[in-house]
Amino acid sequence: MDAWLVDLDAAGTARLPDHRPGGLTAREARRVAACANREAARRLLGTGRVVRHLLAGWLGTAPAEVRIARGPTGKPYLPDHPERHVSWSRSDGLLLLCAAADGPIGADVEVVRPLRSALDVLSVVVPDLPPQAVPESFFPAWTLLEAAVKATGQGLAEGAGSVRLSFAPGGAVGLRGIAGHPPGAWHARTTVLPAARASSAAVASFVSPAALPPVAVRRWPGADGAGTGERAGGPQPHL
Which residue, of 84, 87, 100, 154, has the fewest CB within 10 Å? Predict the structure, then answer.
């Protein structure tokens, strides 16, 4: 599995050409039009350019030849490479892109920030929160939920209720399983990544049917405009 953490506000991102054949799709155009402001629209457009650029290098092809399609729930896939799997997530100005050749993958990232009523928000998608759930549980739990439903292709609205999480004291959260799948069918890893800029950190989660060793997350662009390596993983974090 390969993963990249991208600063969408970096100059190197803005300089990438747009290689989408035929320009924006109708879905992309609708999403850009729905953006609340110019910055959000710029980041959304930048996401498309970066994803195509990085996947081209991963696939060994030209960016213009990377075709990306979406399933009924919005899950992205590569119609010309059905054996390859991709997932990505944006939070603030960060993009997390993940690509795998050994089975479906789900990835999610959230920039850590103050949240009012974090447990009230979480309880909407995780009913009957246990006493061990604390406000610090929010970002690990939320990213695990998102990564899990992306991996299965269900989407949050339909699939959140099937994801079983375990809550430990101190805010650590784990994936117990996904309803309708055998025990141990899915593996998860959650980690804290220093943000690409400023002082905030980001929580990232990955879910896959394959066992997940520590994930090497490469920053893009690096100081020289290329990706730089950073190993993420280890025990699930106590935030």
Answer: 84
Task: Cite the beta strand spans of the chain per DSSP E.
Answer: 2-7, 69-70, 76-77, 85-91, 94-100, 106-111, 163-167, 173-178, 187-194, 201-208, 215-220, 228-232
pLDDT in tens, 54-94: 999 999 999 989 999 999 888 999 999 999 999 999 998 89
pLDDT of residue 20: 65
The upper half-sphere exposure of residue 153, i.e. CA atoms within 13 Å in the direction of its Cβ, equals 11
Q: Which two tokens stand for residue 77?
A: 């896939």
Measured CA to CA, the distance from residue 15 to residue 103 in angstroms comes to 32
pLDDT 10s digits, 162-185: 999 999 999 999 999 999 999 999
